[in-house]
Queue: 2 jobs
Job 1
Amino acid sequence: MNYEAVIGLEVHVQVRTNSKIFTRVAAGYGHAENTLTDPVILALPGALPVMNKAALDAIIKAGLLLGCEIAPVCKWDRKHYFYPDSPKNYQISQYDQPMCRGGAVEIELPGPARNVMGEHKKIPLTRIHLEEDVGKLNHGAAESLVDYNRAGTPLMEIVSEPAMHTAEEAFAFLTSLRATMVYGGISDCDMEKGQLRCDANISVRPTGQTTLGTKVELKNLNSISFVRDGIAHEIKRQIALLERGGTVEQETRDYDGQTGLSQSLRSKEMAHDYRYFPDPDLMPVKVDEAWKARLRAECPELPFEKQRRFAASHQLPYTLTSVLVWDKALADYFEEAASLAGPGRAQAVGNWIVNDLLRELGGAKLEVGQAKVRPAHVAALVQLVEAGTVLANAAKEIFIEMFATGETPEAIAGRRGLNAAPADAGELELWCRDAIAANAKALAEFKAGKDSAINAFKGPVMKAAKGKADPKLVDSTLRRLLAAS
Amino acid sequence: MAAELFFQTIAELGALLDSRKLSSAELTRAVIARTKAVDGRVHAFNSFDEAGALASAAASDARRAAGQARGPLDGIPVGLKDVIAAAGQPLTASSKILANYVSPYDATVTARLKGAGAVVWGRLNCDEFAMGSSTENSAFGPASNPWDLARVPGGSSGGSAAAVAGGELIAALGSDTGGSIRQPAALCGVVGLKPTYGLVSRYGLVAFASSLDQIGPLARTVEDAALVLGAIAGHDPLDSTSFQADIPDYHAGLKQKKGPWRIGIPKEYFGTGLDPAVGAAVEAAIAFYRSQGCEIKEVSLPHTQYCLDTYYIIATAEASSNLARFDGIRYGHRASGAKDVVDLYFQSRAEGFGPEVKRRIILGTYVLSSGYYDAYYLRAQKVRTLIRQDFLSAYREVDALLTPTSPTPAFKLGEKFDPLALYLCDIYTIGVNLAGLPALSLPCGFTPAGLPIGLQLIGQPFRESELLAMAHTYEQAHDWHRRHPAL
């Protein structure tokens, strides 16, 4: 029998704010234990929460970016459960009136080859709500310690519809969602720092069945690869179970990315009664059209939109757009350089960025914003090459030096004598004649109408010229001689 | 003959301090001496910091000597109900679970009193977590009524009322969730004001029922209550439920606001269970206002019969949530020998909370449970809206309402074992909290046995000035507030 998996994701994204969601103490990562605390965070008697407007701004912005319906009122509820990581033993969250409903995450599935665009889909969202993060327990042999630095960090819970069917789709969903959050300046989404955390609800059913199978919640998917691997493993586990004639139990399972195995954490019978009720300490906050309009104005173009625009307006190939658009700083870098370089040079600019700049950045372990070589340098280099002032090999050297020093390409070429000294026209013609004479096969092919056969002559010419020949002049000379042969 | 120093009012003492006939140090020492003399019998205090009080008094005297006195409260000893935080002082909520807890920070009201120069001294006994109407629910033993030590001072701010009545303090702060300032004020013969919900910051008040709790003053006179209210009222950025408005000069308002007022008498507040002596004293107060040219009008608050049920659903639901933080993990009582974290919670809370607190946590947990929320909590909130509308409708015809504060005078310690009988003590005060209104209790007579009787005036939202002026008018024509218990 064939089976189909149904997958829904619950993604927690920490919102990047200066202070915590209900008090003025700073939010942050990597500080000494229990230093980012105050009476509110520690839930001391008498402490009261006061909402951080920046956190509300962030979730509204997230909702606008994902096409959600934004609630007219931000309402807070208390969710009760006793655990030492939760200082009040209730979490301030949003229950029946989430800030955002609906919306979707656009994803791209892997294409048939790396350089070919894959299928695009929109995965619908159920809701996004805002809540406070909890503290962190550190379990020792004899005792457990709790660090409340993370407690009270604003946290968005993004819930997808059960609308994905493969681990690849879930992977693509998280990749796209993360890029959207980073683009919007909503979160850094560093999974190692717990800024993005994912649980998956997974069920399988015989292909063609419309009702859902029993779902299992998979927790602790601590990297995007673990999400893919964990889901793939769980789908296989459930199918194997059904094939053996077993039944899937509704439970929560813990995935271990190191071993690739999962184990049961708790069954449905242990489900909590959270006793939600509206938090009487926090007044509902009205979100009017002007508020939304202000945030809408701050919303950036998303990666896929940018990719479509780059392809349409700059005629960039997928191999370039698929690299350029995922890092907003890189895309901005490209746009600035392409604009400075002038019309018709976008692809050359894109090539320099995708091939050379990224290689150098990777080697130096730098972000694009830290590069000494600026968009104006790349634009100038493209123009120099086009004008024949510097030749291709020299340009590669110049780029590496620009990256290291931040000097202009003109300065480097001048200082290092890398300007093209075009070969003597007469000498060039001799080399061309020799090359044509030495390759009768290519000559026949060219005569037969295969234009690319001309390239077979260029290599020997450039070799004879020791690289110091203007490719355009070589081309035109060869064509003149070939036409006469 | 002038009253003993410790029985004088803020206004009287302010005049003595300003004219240098008295220093804050002398006054504070007199109050401390009085407390030491009588508190063994009254047990109004859970604890006090004598050295801290004397240091504050000395600082006040230095300011006054330098011509930098901060106003009418500068140098006046004022106490806090033991649910209001003061930095470096115990904050027990009269509970075993917080018996050893010291607050690291000031409540906003505490900071404002200190800012006004008051000598903030003493932690005042109350029912555990402000749950009760007699102060018998204190884990540290009940307080007594200074007028009859065999009787309760009321509650839950019983220590605050008893301390002011007994001359152990000049004024105090209490908190009022269902009558916890007004009822003990009535039973002890002092003035107690519950402000409009949102007028006074709750930051630093140990939460009982967040949507009902308000801090307010207990004082000897309406004028003193106005002075204390003026110091503590006003918007606080640390409390989202605090109201953003300019605060009027309540003290100046006492003389500026003049009647005659249209006063409503809610017929539901004069039913069975009203002590005849209380009824007679309140009738006499009505006659007084009529004699002043006020229009007296019977009004109806038809949903009054639902107040008690509504209150005990909403208050306990919020309490069950607010008290979840007392778990023995970060502070407070922690049981020893627990097997695991769940056991630690069970044991710490079983040992730390008293029976009334447990009763309310269980009730509140129940009404919030899945499947019961709509039937109880949600419905109670709807009834609450109707109760508030009752009051607001009445205010289309009248300026204020007049009722007894408590159906009976102070009862005997140990007399009311049945929790429901105790809950009935608050039937005239609870509606005010549900509706979020300001209300004040002031002395309006004594029973034949010499127990004080309280008159409740209920005002319109954020119209405390009007309410205080109305009470002041009565007080000016009577001398109940000049009587003091013999201790």
Job 2
Amino acid sequence: MADGIHQAIETVFRIERARLIGGLARLVRDVDLAEELAQDALVAALAEWPRTGVPTKPGAWLMETARRRAIDGFRRQRMRARKHAEIALAQDEADDGADALEAALDDDLGDELLGLIFAACHPVLPPQARSALTLRLVGGLTTGEIARAFLSPEATIAQRIVRAKRTLRSTGLAFEVPRGAERQPRLASVLEVIYLIFNEGYVATSGEDLIRPALAAEAQRLGRILAGLMPEEPEVFGLLALMELQASRFAARTGPDGALVPITDQNRARWDWLLIRRGLAALARAEALGGADRPYALQAALAACHARARTAEETDWPRIAALYDRLCAVAPSPVIELNRAVAYSMAFGPETGLALLDAIERADALRDYAPLPAARGDFLFRAGRWAEARHEFQTAASLSRNARERDFLLRRAAACGG
Amino acid sequence: MRVMVMVKATEDSEAGRMPPAELLDAMMKFNEELVKAGIMLAGDGLKPTSEAKRVHFDGTKRTVTDGPFAETRELVAGYWIWQVKDMAEAVEWVKRCPNPMFGPSDIDIRPLYEMEDFAEITTPETAALERRLRKEMGG
């Protein structure tokens, strides 16, 4: 029985934790202290709730308890300042602190979580620190879990998080949701972090497992939270749509032996139709909000072309090619150029694709990038030029850092005959 | 993990009695919380079984029966699909749900089979192990 209530309290705390830390960080302007205060509130709950039962609004109870402790902390600081006859300035500051905390008690509790997400993804932090801090503060992952997910030593991740918290403290960040001119660039950083976490799970760039589903699932959850909290932001829905649609193919993406299965060969019955429905709905929302031509929504629209085709043969490749044209216009990148070449090869034949690849190779931005020779190999194979195709697949395999991907490319090379 | 959260039927739901406005309102707020927490994947209310059909299987035989069905408390009146970390989290969220019915009622939480559950069956290692065991057992 006692175990039961303790587990229930721990679970309630886990549910409330991020919002709690967000609200507290806003008060004390220090994530570390906020985490500590939240932990104190949990200890208080573990002492009190077994007796009183879990309150009807446990989140509010935890917040109130932690805030009271924060105020007490400020008062103690002030007392100490008196005792030690510190200079008057220090005392004034402490007074201000306590007053600000009391005033904040009446504040609206609506968007603490959002404020915390924006803080963790702040552009002052290095990109790697942003994802680690987001997973720690918002996702509630332990340092060890984050280290395993990113295949990094735990000490590296721990240090990254400590430094990031220190940076946030020294910049005096308010943990508010940015408004005005600051909002769009800050939001772009949030979306970038979430998509980076998703991709780290979706296509592991190194290691044996092609998919680390837990990380992708966490990114999807963050995307869903964001969509719930920012229902008017088109790119939030664009990103959510992209993630739901890509994740809908997880189960079909690897064969029974763990090998990669290309989209045109996937068993569509194994696609997750609930996620497809959610992805298409999110895409429709992004488009309705006027975001059809933004990068994430365009990529989601591309994924939707596959989701809508009942068989691989029904895929609307000319539409995919046209979407890549638009994507190249709004978010030009060599990788997107490469994907565009693949789409053109499917829509208009391998020779068209090869011509586009020549242009990409001349630009030389994708040197040593395995997907480039892999695409060339595929086009040559489809054009019946097997010897050249085999050479390209072998080159691609030697460049790939993912064991599963390498196996796939070597099998394709072997299929070109000897 | 994914769970299906099933609101069990009552005499009232089977009679098609619509819940009062306050309950609908509370339910809407609860749904909003689920969305903001990022756990809601899907959800719907089901019409009473007076509008349902049942197909009975027995070998190659199929028999179709019209609703309503008798075992009221075993029927489902509505469902959600949630993405949660574990069953404990699902339980805590269900506790926050307003009582969906006029009188006493039940909500069942059932975990869905996931990709990993099937991976166990299909890995080459387990397949090989199974073959070896069969051989050892003389099968």
